[in-house]
Amino acid sequence: MKLKKYTVCLTMVLMMSAVLTACNSGQPIDGDLSSQGENSGEDTSIVQEAPETSPGIAGIENVDLSEDTSELAEAEEFMPSAYEPAYSAESGQAYLAIADSKWDVQYWGTATKDGYMLAYNAGIADIKGDGYYVVSVSADTDGFRFDMTGDPKKDYTPEGLGYLSVIIPDGEKLYPGAVISIDSVAVDGTELELSAKNYTISEDGEETKASLYDSWVTKPPVESRTPDGALYDEDGDPLDIRKNYSAQIVNLEDFETWKNVEVRFIISGTGKKNSSADAEPEDGINPENLEN
Known about the structure:
Elements lengths: L1 H24 L41 H12 L14 E7 L6 E2 L17 E2 L4 E8 L3 H8 L13 E6 L2 H4 L4 E9 L2 E2 L8 E2 L6 E6 L46 E9 L24
Antiparallel strand pairs: 1-2, 1-3, 1-5, 4-10, 5-9, 6-7, 6-10, 8-9
């Protein structure tokens, strides 16, 4: 009789131990325990499927996305490669910085997120000495249309002008004292009449810049560089020639709508001659890869 009671107690202890083990392992406790888990050879653990919507929409808060993952996603989103090649200006290369009147369409010499949509087929000039060069942007590309509308075949036409400059990254370091002289500006194949001469300046001591339209600048600064020399005397008083120079040398009415903008310019004062840029380039030729 004592043996029977002992056996019953031992059986109950073993059953309770099995229950606790199943609870801790996440296995269902239903039916014959001997058919569950390792004894059955089947994986009975519960797997929860990921929500179809994003964590925020699904109601899951405080989701921690790693910085590396977010940067990778951003790079993939803003550097598409399915369309025309997208160009970034490197050190010593000139590009055409531009923004429409709403600042929705921009290009700042980069194919990444900030100001990238006009990078497709952008004309970049490799500055290798004094001579003629050409920079350009185009809103007539599949890449631009896709970035603006989500459809590479859906037309989008920029309107108005908010900013326009020729900029050379690291120009002050590579070509100290160099002067950019705007020779011509064409919008959709039509050459524009310029209202003034441009000057060359550096606002940060690194980039060399020639503004064609900068509405924030009312007069050339004292440190302006021009082919005609200084615009101010030693006391900082303006010389007569200063009235010929401006940061707004194009007329806004010429940019009511536009697709392609091309600027031809002359570099001087670099201290070396680019033999391939001696003469004005022919129409349609962008001397991006000029050789010495």
